[in-house]
Amino acid sequence: MTVRCSITAVERTRRIDRNFWLGVANGVFVNGGEAFFNSSLVIAPFLAQLGASPIVIGLIPALRVGLFFLPQLLVANRLTHRPLKLGPYRITSTVRNAAFFLMTGVVLFAGGLEPGFVTLVVVVMVAINATASGIGGVPFADITAKIVPHAKLGTFWAIRNVLGGGIALAAGFALRAILDSDIPFPRNFGYIFLCGTILASIGNASFSLVKEPPGEAGIRRPLLGMLRYVPDLLRTDRSLRRFLRIRLLGLAALLAEPFYGIHALVNLEAPESALGLYIIAATVTAIAANFLFRRPANSGRNVAVLQIGYGCFVLSLVSALLIQDWRLFSLVFMFAGIGNAAVGSAAWNLLYAIAPASERALYIGIVNTTMTLPSLLPIIAGAAIVFVDLRVLFLIGALLGTAAFVLSLRLRELHAQDQLALRAHSDPAVVEILREARNMVDD
To answer: Tens digit of pLDDT per residue, the chain (443 long)?
Structure first.
């Protein structure tokens, strides 16, 4: 009996390690591939050269973020009662890969095609990819919470982002070399998209190989029942309410981020190859930030990491307002790189900390679907720059970012929840009792 238990423990440890590294591989290749699809430094300049309007350019990041967030509440309601959720992820990852391969093929052979048609294909494929990513995002997030202990989440995100950042750094040099070469437009961007598509496909395939352990099943509710339950949940769980408030403001602050690259090219007269330099600057700082943030994240200090992230968003926007030299404009992307690294990991860790295991998918769906609203702001920003200077949008973003930073200074309760999550494996009953007691206290 003792030998059998020992073998079972070894097998469980091996499965955890295998899942951990498959999750890491997913992040490494997906994050590396994302550098070749950067909304502000790759897709926006590409569409601008095609002659697309600023509204269409602003539509791209809005679609990528908005369609990722929008379906997640409905998806969560369909999946929360299922102990296993990897199947939907595998289906949606296949759709994501297919959309980007089709888009890449059209761009590579777009020499004789109408620019308007190419623009339409890019917008539609980005929309399909984003929607599939959103549907797959709920099972991905829930599975990640099951296969990675809370005390290792900081390390998990850090390794994903550091190694993925290494690929993204190489992508910056590759992007610069391709755009400086004699490869004609739009084929040069087609090769850029091809690199990103291959890397993202490898990453999606990696996570599909995870051995998912069964999770705690939640309550299966009809759609109307779920929609009635959500307002009640927001009233009773103030941790969720406060987390949601700060995430809304933080995302709204990025309304003008897709136009950083265009501002540098048009208003600061930066050469096209500077886009590669900016990716390198953002990536190097993000790698360093992820490495430094792993320890505080593992020790339950994700609120502090979140505060640093929102502070860097403000610095990025203020720098975009003040800097007049395209070379110094790299600072904008450096601050943005640190901010995105901090918020990207800390926000997930805090959400896992405040969500009960049985309702985790629903919490993910509520938060992410609500994020759809601020994700639409780049469309408004794209329409607004016809009438106002980009610096006005940078100023608005800085004010929203400052509001998010100020509110982040009042998250002592979320810090306590983060600390409790570290104890969940050793004493889950106590953790649940303390969480419920805390939610009974009024704002």
So the answer is: 544 444 455 555 666 689 999 999 999 999 889 889 988 778 988 998 898 888 888 788 778 877 888 888 888 888 888 888 899 999 999 999 999 999 999 999 877 788 889 999 999 999 999 999 999 999 998 999 899 988 888 899 889 988 888 887 788 788 888 988 888 888 999 999 999 999 999 999 999 999 999 887 777 788 788 888 888 888 889 889 999 999 999 989 988 887 888 889 888 988 877 887 887 888 889 888 988 998 898 888 999 999 999 999 999 999 999 999 999 999 999 999 999 989 988 998 899 888 888 888 888 888 888 888 887 787 778 778 778 888 899 999 999 999 999 999 988 888 888 888 777 655 555 455 445 544 444 44
Alpha-carbon distance of 254 to 378, in angstroms, equals 8
Domain definitions of the chain by residue range: 15-439
- Looking at the structure, give the CATH architecture of the domain made up of residues 15-439: Up-down Bundle (1.20)
Task: Please spell the DSSP secondary structure of 358-408, one letter per residue.
Answer: GGHHHHHHHHHHHTHHHHTHHHHHHHHTTTS-HHHHHHHHHHHHHHHHHHH
Residues 6+ positions from 239 with CB-CB distance below 8 Å: 354, 413, 414, 417, 438, 439
Please tell me the pTM assigned to this model. 0.75
Q: Which amino acid is at 22?
A: L
CA 27 to centroid of chain Cα atoms = 11
